[in-house]
């Protein structure tokens, strides 16, 4: 007995001789396999024994002697159990039975043992059964098969299920043909098994279907409807039910109609090649989709063949004969055969297939085709005829219609031609004629109505005898070709026309003038051979011979003698070579022979160009010349290229779309042909000439008008002469530019309502600008319900430049309708307008969108001025003389060399300038030079007299030299002849018209303004009368010799031409220009106003009653002074444009304006006519007061800035308030308008210049006299002939003329006001002291004594504000170059120059040079310079100069310090010498004449209430026991050291004068207490009153925001060193010290800071609000700005009319933060903050910078960035955690796998026993909350049990279902460990240890996440808080 898997060896030991063979076999007598035998078969080896090896084995020895004894042994096999049948999981519902089967094999036979939940069952059967299952039967059933060798074991579940039905298969909808069967199937799963029933839905009821119903069969779960009809179709329901639930599923059984098909064709008999359509009409159920297939003779038609096309045609509803047409539709499918042939005849089948049926229909098509080829039976050839016979071969279903006979010849064997094509179908023979000398082959074709048949077989060849040609070539033409050539052409004569061999052409020609009696030779003359009597005996032998040949050779056989002679003659003519050899006949005909009969032309070359010739062409063959008529043609030979190009090409007139070009014509002889005209080529300059357009003139015209040009485009052009053939050389290219044309409309035009009374208008530049857009006109007017339009309101290009394409219209009427018109404007004027009508609706306030804005620097316009008078500086005199050549420039009353100016601008006045000034070339400069060139008689020679004569863009001496063109020593009309031509016949067309107008007004375009100017006689057109009206010299033009530069603008233009003869003296002169804007004045200068002073006010060319009526303003019937008084608003003694203006808005100033001005019709023009006009100041925002928000653009510069605020501050108190209104509101109507203020400066408008006037003459009003004297210091103001106190003006601007004004007027300080005072200051010699004599050097706004007393301290040749600032200075960095050197030395001795004496004074330390050491040696107040505060009037002479510097250095040590002051100006010391300091030692410290409490307070330095030695110690810097000038400086700058200086020296108010006070001596503001911020604790004693009080705090509040903070320091820290000190401000008020007054004075523009703007170097930044058209942008806006780093914002006024504001006076050295706040009612939205960098450190942007881009980090973007980082970190943590969990789950699975096989032992007799501690898990399971009968609970239990079973069977399966493990893990693992002894606690511990090892990582990640969350929360909170603070209103509104 052996076990499985053992090896067995058995030997058969035999001793025989000879050696036997061993044979092995088994009991079945089967031999043992040889591979199991070893050692020659003696050993049997059984390896890996199995049951198959069990049994008896035999062996026997066999040799020659015989067979030996048989030996036998038996192998027994025993084995461990193996399952034959394994138990399986049983899932059965309650009430059913469950059977488990278990069979095993083994040896000995295994014993079967069953267990239930671990308990051994009392049975060993292979099958166990559980009947009538309940939930209690749920258990784990196990089968154990064991024997002595081992066991096998398997456990499974008995699952008792309780499940409601669930669909496994639901019934589906079916569709069938009517009468067909249909089946529905459904299947459901449940426990117990659900019962399936069927029902049909009939209306609202369900009718159950029974198997007994004959209509149905029910098999299992399938319902079969045997024949579906209307009674059995519809909705069916499958119902599945068990005791737990019932479910239903519906399906539809639909009937489909059967498909019908019908085919048709329009005609079943068609011709070949026809287009045939075969219709297949199908009637089909709408729910079915057909598939159409066509067959031809049962073969499927290939629709890919291009000859077939299948399409669908919907049938009309009328064709539907189906009763149930709602379910059926008719569709026709059309098979198109594009071209049928005979083989297309046959049967066509239309086959229709659907998903349910299939039908077909047939039709027959017959195709008619061409006949069969005829049978050619016979051909008989005889001479020149051939007889043909034939027979028909069939007509192919179409009757024959006839026959065609065709032939070919030997010359064209493939070119068949018809001999006869209309033979009757009945004919069968025909005779054909043949041409001479030809061989013919024939064939026959038949035709019917379908077409022509194929040809018959070809006939035999027939030949015909020859003759001369019947005719000469037809259609002979002679045309000129190349130069000196003629091209002769003709129609070739085919072989059929040759009539014999050796056919050729003969071309003859001769010059027309060479004819000898041959007639005139006109084209087309016909000459018959032999009839030309003048042909000198018929020298042309051809003609004669040919005639003879025709007579003698009539038979045409070509064998006669004549033919031979002709051939010889032709050979002679051909000159032997036979082709195109030229020869000459006796009568002068040149000829050539053309042998090639196919040649149809010949070129006759080398002829004289453009010469007339006679030409003829003849036909010849071997039989002679044609007897026909030959034509003679006359033509000129070819033309040659013209030699010359046109010259002097110019564009004399270029309008927008046309231009006139002229040129000098070429010489006729150079044309070399007939001059057709001139070719003008022109093209746009930016393209090449390949795009040129051409215009051809005719004849000799030398002028052309080019039309349809593009406006404002540069063109190039050239001109060439053209004859009939050639174009001559082109002229040099010229360039010209068309004028600007009318612009197209704007694009993207839209209007948006912003509020109930405002609109936003937006547009883009026109697509077709046709020039340069200069700006836009925006007009709007109200439209009433009837469509009537109200007055127009307009914005012009001055308001809207080309870059401004958005505008706001404000102050509109709510509820009104407006029409808004936008018109682009270019140089041609107004373009095409676009308009939109908008009805104003009520709009609720809402939160505006975040505003976007742009900014740009406002460039200053500076006109370049040179030092014309050579005095070393550029001042007012240079500006005045900028455009002057010679005049009384030094105002000494005469003209001499002292008046010569620097005319060549080379920096000096030299001989070249004197030569220029000597205009008459007499060697001296005097009045005669002025007379020689003073055309306008104004006493000087300037730009009005000469102009830019050399065209170099400036006005200088070169223009004077160029102006004297005739060299006669003067500049007069003869020099101007033909210059500056304004009107002449430019286009040379012989008349004066609009085409002759030039750009008269010099605006770059010829437009209506130029036409108006050219209409000199104002008759509405431009003609000869206009020329005659102004052509003074009669030279046929209007130029500089006829018209003077009357307006003095330096050029002759339309303004000069438009001036009328206003005074009626018969000429137009300077007097008329003066009167251009006058209505009435004392014109004749007789001292009164009368009719003699009336001028031509209506510009009609005369002074008549109409003009007198206009002048009679008060309507009293006469013209007198009362009329002037009635309208002279400015009080200047006349009525002019300053009094009235362009009242009717027609663009000019005339009588109509006078009438319009008297609005109230009371006969005068006064304030009542102007009420509410030109309002300059009023309560615009309606808030009840007057403030900065009410200021408008008073100065008209396009924005509201500091200049407008200053103008509105009428009372000059520094603010705009109600007092300013009261100061100028004369009529008391609550505003300042045209009724209150006059146009004093006469510029035609009311503006800041008129408003900013004082009552200088103290007469109680502000009038023209005040304007006249606004810059006057002293003059004869009362006009009485002398200067006295009556002439004194209000010089100090305090509103009255008092002693202070009289004292200021006493300039020479002699105690009275007289002529001497005028002489003292009258520098220009005009008998007054005004702005021409002295400027406002102290910057106080008036010219007064202070300005006059200033000396030229800096030695630059003039007295200006710099000299005023330096008046009290000895030495400092005066040139601001950063160091102290000789360049900073001033005129300290007042001798008028800076010389060695001044250098010696400046060298304070006496070291031989001037440097910073000199400043340090005397700068006592440490402000960086030496001035009055450091030295004072040391020598007591009343001024501070160099003598005081010398005097101050008392100890002579080279510096000025305390040692020089020791013992001087004693303030406190032991004056009574009692050894103590007390009150007895106090002196009169305050210098008020008494020793009082003020002195005691001043002496109490330490502020402790008494006077003692502590007070000395508190201020005794030099420790000498006293307080004197060595200890205290002259702080208040009054020239001495006294108690006020003692008090003032304690800057920080701490009770002593120490180093800290020294450091802060010249400081206004800084962090004095070093606490890290700037606040009130840092305020110093700025007014030097001894304490730090409210006055000092107010002074320190530099930005005027009510507190002292860092913003104040930033506002004035010019040098950026962190404090405000003398380097930032200086002694602004010139009082010798630096204190709070200087701080206030330094802020000259009153904007709350001290910056470059206060020095006049401020920059302006224009802020442009760009409202978002797609969102609600808001209604108005204002701007907030602040210096970078400051905290508080400066707010502008609210801009409610425009879309821009200008920030003025920004410091170019600082950067500013700016934002725009959009407003709508109470809602406000701020923009992003942008940074405007310091303009001195940046390149100014060419384009505005968009304000939507922030310079600083956007906090919201930064927040999102942080959040993104946080999310990324979290995701990384999740990924790593997931990876960690997965790895540990895999580890856990591995542990489970090992644990499953950990303690298994071979089974004993009863291997399964109940162990102590085993627990019935089901029994101990806690009650579930969920109902155990619920389907959900049952499903969960089943899933859990199945997952557990799978887990036991395969751990890998467990690993793949970890989701279920996660759900049921605790329960399943508990049971699993109970069954198989797995230590669950140990596994859990292992998992826990691995988890704990990663806890630090998780903790770290958690901390990081919390930190990020906290940071984000704080950051977002900060942003929200900041935004709320920035705009609280917006957040509250939101």
From TrEMBL:
GO biological process: anatomical structure morphogenesis; cell differentiation
Coiled coil: none
Keyword annotations: Disulfide bond, Immunoglobulin domain, Membrane, Repeat, Transmembrane, Transmembrane helix
Highest taxon listed in the record's lineage: Eukaryota
Annotated ranges, domain Ig-like: 1-76, 81-159, 165-254, 261-360
Pfam families (UniProt xref): fn3 (PF00041), I-set (PF07679), ig (PF00047), Ig_3 (PF13927)
UniProt keyword Disulfide bond present: yes
Amino acid composition bias (Basic and acidic residues), ranges on this chain: 925-938, 999-1015, 1122-1132, 1177-1191, 1219-1229, 1373-1385, 1413-1431, 1510-1520, 1537-1555
Biased composition (Acidic residues): 513-550, 557-585, 866-878, 898-916, 939-982, 1016-1058, 1086-1121, 1133-1176, 1209-1218, 1230-1241, 1249-1261, 1277-1299, 1307-1317, 1327-1349, 1386-1412, 1432-1443, 1450-1463, 1492-1509, 1521-1536, 1626-1640
SUPFAM superfamilies: Fibronectin type III, Immunoglobulin
Regions crossing the membrane: 1757-1782
Region (Disordered): 513-585, 866-1065, 1086-1263, 1275-1463, 1492-1555, 1620-1655
PANTHER family the record matches: IG-LIKE AND FIBRONECTIN TYPE-III DOMAIN-CONTAINING PROTEIN C27B7.7 (PTHR13817:SF175), TITIN (PTHR13817)
Protein's name according to its UniProt entry: Uncharacterized protein
Species this protein is from: Halocaridina rubra
């Amino acid at each position: 007995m052996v076990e499985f898997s053992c090896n067995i060896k058995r030997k058969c030991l035999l001793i025989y001789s000879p050696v036997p063979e061993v044979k092995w076999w088994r009991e079945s007598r089967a031999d043992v396999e040889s591979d199991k035998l070893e050692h020659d078969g003696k050993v049997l080896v059984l390896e890996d024994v199995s049951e198959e090896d069990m049994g008896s084995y035999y062996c026997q020895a066999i040799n020659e002697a015989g067979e030996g004894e048989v030996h036998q042994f038996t192998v027994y096999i025993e084995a461990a159990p193996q399952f034959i049948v394994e138990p399986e999981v049983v899932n059965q519902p309650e009430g059913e039975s469950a059977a488990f089967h278990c069979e095993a094999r083994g040896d000995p036979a295994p014993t079967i043992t069953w267990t239930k939940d671990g308990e051994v069952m009392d049975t060993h059967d292979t099958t166990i059964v559980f009947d009538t299952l309940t939930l209690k039967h749920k258990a784990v059933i196990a089968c154990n098969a064991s024997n002595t060798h081992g066991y096998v074991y398997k456990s499974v579940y008995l699952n008792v299920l309780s499940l409601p039905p669930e669909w496994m298969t639901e019934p589906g909808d079916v569709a069938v043909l009517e009468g067909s069967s249909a089946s529905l199937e459904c299947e459901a799963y449940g426990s117990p098994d659900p019962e399936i029933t069927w029902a049909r839905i009939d209306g609202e009821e369900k009718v159950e279907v029974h198997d007994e119903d004959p209509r149905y069969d029910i098999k299992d779960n399938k319902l079969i409807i045997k024949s579906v009809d209307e009674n059995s179709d519809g909705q069916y329901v499958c119902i599945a039910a068990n005791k737990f639930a019932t479910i239903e599923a519906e399906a539809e059984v639909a009937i489909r109609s059967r498909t019908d098909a019908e085919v048709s064709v329009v005609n079943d008999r068609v011709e070949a090649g026809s287009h045939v359509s075969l219709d297949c009409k199908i009637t089909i159920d709408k729910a079915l989709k057909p598939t159409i297939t066509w067959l031809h003779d049962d073969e499927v038609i290939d629709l890919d063949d291009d000859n077939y096309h299948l399409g669908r045609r919907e049938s009309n509803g009328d064709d539907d004969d189906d009763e149930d047409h709602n379910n059926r539709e008719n569709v026709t499918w059309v098979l198109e055969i594009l071209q049928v042939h005979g083989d297309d005849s046959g049967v066509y089948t239309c086959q229709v297939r659907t998903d349910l049926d299939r039908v077909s229909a047939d039709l027959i098509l017959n195709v008619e085709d061409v006949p069969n080829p005829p049978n050619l039976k016979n051909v008989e050839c005889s001479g020149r005829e051939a007889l043909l016979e034939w027979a028909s071969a069939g007509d192919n279903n179409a009757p024959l219609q006839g026959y065609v006979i065709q032939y070919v010849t030997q010359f064209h064997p493939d070119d068949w031609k018809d001999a006869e094509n209309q033979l009757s179908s009945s004919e069968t023979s025909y005779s054909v004629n043949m041409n001479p000398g030809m061989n013919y082959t024939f064939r026959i074709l038949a035709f019917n109505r379908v077409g022509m048949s194929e040809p018959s077989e070809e006939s035999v060849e027939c030949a015909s005898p020859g003759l001369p040609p019947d005719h000469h070539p037809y259609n002979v033409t002679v045309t000129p070709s190349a130069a000196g050539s003629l091209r002769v052409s003709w129609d070739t004569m085919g072989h059929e026309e040759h009539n014999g061999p050796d056919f050729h052409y003969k071309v003859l020609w001769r010059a027309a003038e060479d004819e000898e009696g041959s007639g005139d030779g006109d084209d087309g003359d016909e000459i018959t051979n032999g009839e030309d009597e003048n042909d000198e005996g018929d020298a042309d032998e051809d003609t004669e011979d040919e005639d003879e040949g025709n007579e003698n050779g009539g038979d045409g056989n070509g064998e006669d003698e004549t033919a031979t002679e002709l051939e010889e003659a032709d050979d002679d003519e051909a000159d032997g070579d036979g082709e195109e050899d030229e020869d000459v006949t006796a009568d002068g005909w040149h000829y050539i022979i053309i042998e090639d009969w196919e040649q149809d032309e010949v070129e006759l070359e080398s002829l004289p160009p453009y010469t007339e010739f006679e030409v003829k062409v003849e036909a010849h063959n071997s039989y002679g010349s044609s007897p026909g008529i030959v034509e003679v043609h006359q033509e000129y030979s070819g033309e040659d290229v013209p030699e010359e190009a046109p010259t002097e090409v110019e564009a004399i007139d270029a309008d927008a779309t046309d231009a006139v070009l002229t040129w000098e014509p070429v010489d006729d002889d150079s044309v070399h042909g007939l001059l057709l005209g001139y070719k003008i080529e022109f093209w746009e300059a930016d393209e090449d000439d390949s795009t040129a357009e051409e215009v051809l003139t005719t004849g000799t015209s030398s002028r052309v008008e080019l039309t349809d040009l593009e406006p404002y485009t540069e063109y190039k052009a050239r001109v060439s002469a053209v004859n009939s053939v050639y174009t001559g050389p082109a002229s040099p290219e010229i360039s010209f530019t068309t004028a600007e044309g009318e612009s197209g409309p704007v694009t993207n035009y839209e209007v948006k309502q912003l509020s109930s009374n405002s609109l936003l208008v937006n547009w883009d530049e026109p697509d077709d600008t046709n020039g340069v857009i200069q700006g836009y006109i925006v007009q709007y007017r109200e439209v009433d319900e009837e469509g009537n339009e109200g007055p127009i309101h307009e914005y012009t290009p001055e308001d809207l430049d080309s870059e401004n394409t958005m505008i706001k219209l404000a102050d509109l009427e709510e509820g009104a309708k407006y029409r808004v018109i936008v018109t682009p404007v270019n140089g041609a004027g107004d373009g095409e307008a676009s308009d939109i009508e908008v009805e104003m609706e009520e709009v609720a306030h809402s939160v505006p969108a975040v505003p976007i804005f742009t900014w740009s620097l406002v460039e200053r316009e500076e006109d370049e001025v040179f030092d014309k008078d050579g005095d070393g500086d550029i001042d007012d005199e240079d500006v005045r003389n900028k455009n002057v050549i010679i005049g009384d420039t030094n105002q000494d009353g005469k003209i001499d060399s002292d008046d010569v100016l620097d005319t060549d601008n080379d920096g000096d006045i030299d001989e070249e300038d004197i030569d220029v000034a000597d205009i008459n070339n007499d060697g001296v400069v005097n009045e005669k030079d002025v007379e020689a060139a003073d055309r306008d008689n104004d006493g000087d020679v300037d730009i009005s007299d000469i102009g830019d004569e050399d065209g170099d863009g400036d006005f200088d001496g070169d223009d004077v030299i160029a102006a004297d063109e005739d060299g006669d020593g003067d500049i007069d009309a003869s020099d101007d002849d033909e210059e500056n031509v304004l009107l002449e016949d430019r286009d040379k067309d012989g008349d004066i018209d609009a085409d002759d107008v030039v750009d008269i007004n010099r605006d770059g375009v010829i437009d209506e303004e130029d036409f108006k100017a050219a209409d000199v006689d104002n008759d509405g057109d431009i003609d000869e009368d206009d020329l005659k009206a102004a052509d003074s010299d009669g030279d046929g033009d209007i130029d500089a010799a006829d018209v003077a530069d009357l307006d003095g603008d330096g050029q002759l233009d339309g303004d000069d031409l438009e001036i009328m003869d206003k005074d009626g003296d018969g000429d137009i002169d300077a007097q008329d220009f003066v009167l251009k804007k006058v209505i009435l004045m004392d014109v004749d200068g007789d001292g009164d106003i009368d009719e003699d002073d009336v001028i031509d006010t209506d510009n009609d060319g005369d002074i008549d009653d109409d003009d007198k009526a206009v002048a009679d303003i008060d309507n009293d019937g006469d013209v007198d002074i009362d009329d002037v008084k009635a309208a002279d608003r400015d009080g200047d003694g006349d009525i002019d444009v300053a009094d009235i203006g362009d009242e009717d808005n027609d663009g000019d100033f005339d009588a109509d304006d006078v009438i319009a001005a008297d609005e109230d019709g009371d006969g005068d023009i006064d304030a009542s006519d102007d009420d509410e006009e030109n309002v300059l100041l009023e309560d615009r925002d309606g808030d009840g007061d007057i403030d900065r928000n009410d200021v408008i653009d008073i100065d008209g510069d396009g924005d509201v800035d500091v200049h407008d605020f200053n103008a509105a501050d009428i009372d000059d108190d520094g603010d705009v308030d109600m007092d300013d209104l009261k100061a100028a509101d004369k009529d008391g109507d609550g505003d300042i308008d045209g009724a209150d203020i006059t146009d004093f400066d006469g510029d035609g408008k009311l503006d800041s210049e008129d408003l900013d006037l004082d009552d200088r003459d103290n007469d109680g009003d502000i009038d023209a006299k005040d304007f006249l004297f606004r810059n006057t210091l002293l003059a004869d103001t009362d006009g009485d002939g002398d200067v006295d106190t009556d002439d004194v003006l209000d010089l100090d601007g305090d509103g009255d003329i008092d002693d202070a004004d009289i004292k200021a007027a006493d300039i020479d300080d002699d105690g009275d006001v007289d002529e001497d005072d005028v002489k003292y200051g009258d520098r220009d010699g005009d008998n007054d002291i005004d702005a021409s004599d002295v400027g406002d050097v102290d910057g106080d706004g008036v010219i007064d004594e202070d300005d006059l007393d200033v000396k030229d301290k800096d030695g630059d040749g003039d007295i200006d504000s710099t000299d005023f600032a330096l008046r009290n200075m000895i030495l400092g960095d005066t040139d601001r170059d950063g160091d102290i050197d000789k360049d900073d030395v001033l005129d300290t001795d007042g001798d008028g120059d800076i010389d060695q004496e001044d250098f010696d004074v400046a060298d304070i330390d006496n070291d031989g040079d001037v440097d910073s050491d000199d400043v340090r040696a005397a700068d006592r107040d440490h402000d960086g310079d030496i001035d009055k505060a450091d030295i004072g009037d040391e020598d007591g002479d009343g001024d501070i100069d160099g003598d005081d510097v010398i005097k101050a250095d008392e100890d002579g040590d080279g510096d000025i310090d305390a040692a020089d002051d020791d013992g001087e100006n004693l303030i406190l010391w032991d004056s009574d010498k009692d050894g103590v300091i007390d009150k007895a030692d106090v002196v009169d410290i305050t210098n008020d004449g008494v020793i009082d409490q003020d002195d005691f307070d001043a002496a109490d330095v330490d502020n402790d209430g008494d006077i003692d030695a502590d007070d000395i110690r508190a201020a005794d810097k030099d420790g000498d026991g006293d307080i004197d000038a060595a200890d205290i400086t002259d702080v208040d700058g009054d020239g001495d050291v006294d108690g006020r200086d003692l008090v003032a020296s304690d800057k920080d108010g701490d009770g002593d004068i120490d180093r800290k006070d020294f450091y802060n001596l010249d400081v206004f503001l800084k962090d004095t207490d070093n606490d890290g911020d700037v606040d009130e604790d840092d305020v110093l004693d700025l007014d030097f009153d001894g304490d730090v009080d409210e006055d000092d705090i107010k002074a320190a509040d530099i930005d005027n925001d009510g507190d002292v903070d860092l913003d104040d320091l930033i506002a004035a820290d010019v040098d950026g060193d962190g404090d405000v000190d003398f380097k930032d401000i200086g002694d602004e008020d010139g009082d010798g010290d630096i204190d709070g007054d200087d701080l206030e004075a330094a802020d000259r523009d009153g904007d709350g800071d001290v910056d470059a703007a206060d020095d006049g170097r401020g920059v302006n930044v224009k802020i442009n609000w760009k409202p978002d058209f797609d969102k609600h942008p808001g209604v108005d806006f204002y701007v907030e700005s602040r210096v970078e780093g400051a905290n508080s914002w400066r707010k502008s006024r609210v801009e409610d009319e425009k879309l821009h504001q200008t920030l003025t006076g920004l410091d170019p050295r600082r950067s500013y933060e700016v934002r725009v706040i959009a407003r709508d009612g109470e809602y406000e939205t701020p923009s992003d903050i942008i940074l405007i960098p310091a303009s001195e450190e940046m390149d100014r942007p060419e384009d505005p910078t968009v304000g939507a881009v922030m310079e600083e980090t956007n906090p919201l973007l930064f927040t999102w960035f942080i959040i993104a980082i946080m999310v990324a970190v979290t995701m990384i943590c999740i990924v790593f955690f997931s990876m960690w969990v997965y790895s540990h789950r895999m580890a856990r699975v591995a542990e489970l796998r090992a644990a499953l096989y950990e303690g298994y032992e071979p089974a004993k007799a009863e291997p399964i026993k109940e162990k102590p501690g085993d627990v019935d898990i089901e029994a101990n399971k806690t009650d579930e909350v969920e109902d155990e009968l619920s389907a959900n609970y049952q499903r969960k239990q089943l899933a859990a049990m199945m997952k557990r079973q799978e887990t036991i069977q395969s751990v890998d399966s467990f690993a793949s279902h970890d989701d279920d493990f996660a759900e049921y893990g605790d329960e399943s693992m508990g049971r699993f460990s109970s069954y198989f002894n797995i230590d669950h606690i140990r596994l859990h511990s292992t998992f826990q240890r691995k988890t704990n090892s990663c806890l630090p990582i998780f903790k770290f990640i958690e901390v990081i996440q919390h930190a990020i969350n906290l940071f984000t929360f704080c950051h977002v909170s900060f942003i929200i808080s900041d935004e709320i603070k920035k705009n609280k209103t917006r957040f509250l509104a939101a």
